[in-house]
Amino acid sequence: MHARLKAWAWQGAAVLAVALLATWFAHNLSANLAARGMEVDFSFLAARAGFDIPFRLVEWDSSYPYGWALYVSGVNTLLASALIIVLASALGLLLALMRLSGNPLAAGTARAVIELVRNTPQLVQIVFVYVAVLQVLPPMRNSITWFGGIFLNVRGLYLPSPSGTAYNWILAATVVAVLAAALLWRRLGLAAVPRLVVLPPVLLLGAVLAGFNAAWEYPVLRGFNFVGGTRVPPELLALVLGLGIYTSVFIAEIIRAAIAGIHRGQAEAARSLGLTAHQSMFLVILPQALRILIPPLTSQYLNIIKSTTLGAAIAYPEILQIFARTVLNQSGRAVEVMTLVLGVFLVVNLLTSAAMNAWNRRLMLQGR
Amino acid sequence: MQTLKDLLRRGALAAIAGGIAALFAGNVALAQLAPPPGPTVEAIKRRGTLNCGIDTGVPGFAAQDASGTWKGIDIDYCRALAVAILGDASKSKYTPTTAAARFTVLQSGEIDVLIRDSTLTFTRSTALGLDQVAVNFYAGQGFLVRKALGVSKAADLQGATICTVTGATLELNIADFARSTGARIGTLLFDKAEEAIAAMEAGRCDGYTDDSGSLAGMRSTLKVPADWMVLPELISKEPLGIHIRSGDPRWQKIVFWLDTMLKSAEEFGVTQANADQMKSSKDPFVLRLIGVEGDFGKMLGLDNDFFLRAVKTVGNYGEMYDRHFGPNALDLPRGLNNLWNKGGMHYTLPLR
Questions:
Q1: Which residue in the set B149, B175, B199 is minimally distant from A51, CB to CB?
Q2: What distance in Å separates the CA atoms of residue A226 and residue A207, rounded to the nearest whole number?
Q3: pLDDT tens-place string over residues B266-291
């Protein structure tokens, strides 16, 4: 009883301290703003932005308001985060398996890569990759061309872009159907058929069918730049590569630790059942290692999302560059802008960790 | 024993009363002769250094030479302020700021004054809570492009991509220019001018844009300057100048009049070399300028020699311009930055 009282007292004191600190910050802020004749006001979000965003997935031109710029740059941040998470996870798994393979060449290479990458600064690596990418790519007029419609040069990768109602409907219908099938697989009585073998080809088929019914817009060199089509800028490529490689080595170590944490008896049992090394890794060891590695993996994913802000250094139009730099400087609303940026990252990261925790819980239930 | 104690006590009381009276009289006298210089200068004197916010590296305005010493017209302004207030130009401490961070650094009180080729604009004056004290360089936004592009004017940049720095008026001017002329010009935004120039040289952009002064400075850093040209036209007005935090009018007056005096010194022929001899000048404007007549320094809360020290340290405005932008430096014609009576824009308020 006494111990519980003590714990309550400590927690109460901690809450009080945080509340006092927050009050002090708020008071400081309002006093300083008042001294400069300024106030907190979010109405600037509706004002005309007037600047260009060089790469975007959603609609934008300079007549759109500041608030919409938050959305455009937020989507760019999410795109980069998603690509980096996929790359870092795949590369991390590869490096971990190389290190554990027992093959001295593979293990040595993986070890050298891991030590080199994790002991040098992140930002330096990103800028290095960016400059390296720019140096390697050919100038505009000597673009590398594939199939007459895909161009690669120092300005980016130009792809033909599909559009049209038929295309949109077919693609959307396929995606919805595949997602529904994936979720309801067991209830449809298909438990015996492996999902992963059937569904991806269906998705591909839908995409191809949609492609045949689309109006394709091809990139064409006009004046200084290619016009039309879709462009993947080198900034995105450099950010994904730079940050993906950087994080992959940490993920590799986490995976290695998780695999090492599985009792040796599991591997021996799998082997004695007649499973091959490959089967025992992917069917016995990794599924169990997943449980150990999800919590630290979540931290790495959250780090990736936050680190995409380093893209500002290499002109990738993500949330920090567009919103916390350009919008902040044009509107002068430092407190409001920074609050929004912090809020967006907080929400995205809380959702990410909630999803990862849900995954973790599911694996736990299936286990012991 | 009793009497001695009494005597001591009485003496002490008298001393305290006298002290208070003296202090009061002194204060009254001080209030009549020299008003206090304001909280900013008092803080600078207490600290012993002037905290000056400058650019991260644009030749002409603020850039480090091979030995790591900061050079540039903005640096000279910082030095003039330091020697005027503290009597020692080396007491000026530099804080390099990116375009994006500069005003926040000033608002937060980390620096006393921002002299960083920054354009004076409406938003910065109102929404940011800053005082825009003086213009020390009249510029306009120009373009640096590869000669091989065959472009002769800004309107030809239709469809081009231009590298520049984020957090400045530059990107907005391009958008306004594109909007008014119907041209489509893409921008690629970097944190620092060096990174933008590196990307441009790698072919990522067709050109670089900045104010005309910085453009001349960045051009001097190119690997092959001859491959590049500055387009003749300017698409905006960029009056670059000095920002301080609002709320200290005394500090505003000191900075404003120091700038005025640096320009007036050129107008009246007071130079770094002849400033001491000018004490025997017959021109009352000159005598007031260098503090021989009138109590102008004291009225600002400083001493009467403050400007004499400044001009002996950095020279007059024309000398500063020549040192950093003249034929032996970046070779940028004075144009608007000449005095009003030589076809320029610097028309100073009279010293009387």
A1: B175
A2: 26
A3: 999 999 999 999 999 999 999 999 99
